[in-house]
Amino acid sequence: MRRVLANGLPILVLAVPLLAGGLQGPVRLHEKGGKVRPSLQDCVAILEPLDVPLPAPGPSRPVSIRTVGKQFHPRVSLATPGTEVAFPNLDHILHNVFSVTEGNRFDTGQYQPGDAPRVKVARPGLVKLYCNVHHQMNAFLWVVTTPFAQVLDGRTGLAFDQVPPGAYRLRLWHPEASERTWTVRIGEGVTRGAWDLDLSLPALEPHKNKFGRDYAPPQDERAY
């Protein structure tokens, strides 16, 4: 059967037992000073089985990460190994998407407005995406091998259902927080909890261009 992830990606799922359970609860993002951020935008929850055999998912439906207003949309996406990822350029200027993430390195080269270069991701894990033309552009693609993964945009917490009973590793991540993990045991019915992340990292991670050098200062912001 198919399960649809939070960003609309269908992934093949193992038929689960009748006594399958679930995991639910609020997630809180704590900013510096203790204030709780009201939105879970860009926060990712991944539930990985520790002792439950699940079949490896095949490639998910192609993912589209658009370049609009010198930003990536969406900023955070999910995919499975072998998935094709497109980068439609909806701006009137050039872009050049690249990643230096080990196992998923690629470079689209500069491409024109209206073009949509495509790449395939292979290795599970977090793929960091940048533009070689615009230093302020960054995005993140989680390549997962579990059917239980969600981007929590528009939610107040996580909610996984139809989960086979067993032990799982829950991973929570946000671009401005170090990843945290918990071990949870899921049985029949809904297992509940509450989870917190501390936002202590800069909104834009310091990075070099695709050549490993500093970005040149822009001469004219309107022209690139």
How does this structure look, described?
The protein has 224 residues and is mostly beta strands. It is 0% helix and 43% strand. The chain contains no helices and 21 strands. The strands form six sheets. Strands 3, 4, 17, 20 and 21 form a five-stranded mixed β-sheet that branches. A hairpin with a 6-residue loop joins strand 14 and strand 15. It is globular, with a radius of gyration of 19 Å.
**What share of the residues lie within helices?**
under 10%
What overall form do the CA principal axes indicate? globular
Order of helices and strands: EEEEEEEEEEEEEEEEEEEEE
| Rg value | 19 Å
Counting H and I runs of at least 4 residues, what is the number of helices? 0
Low-pLDDT runs of 5+ residues are 1-17
Mean pLDDT: 90
What profile does the largest beta sheet have? 5 strands, mixed
Q: Oligomer, anyone?
A: single chain
Strand proportion: 35-45%
| Helix-strand category | mainly beta
Q: What structural keywords apply?
A:
224 residues; mainly beta; five-stranded mixed beta sheet; globular; disordered N terminus
Task: Summarize the structure in short.
With 224 residues, the chain is mainly beta. It has no helices and 21 strands.
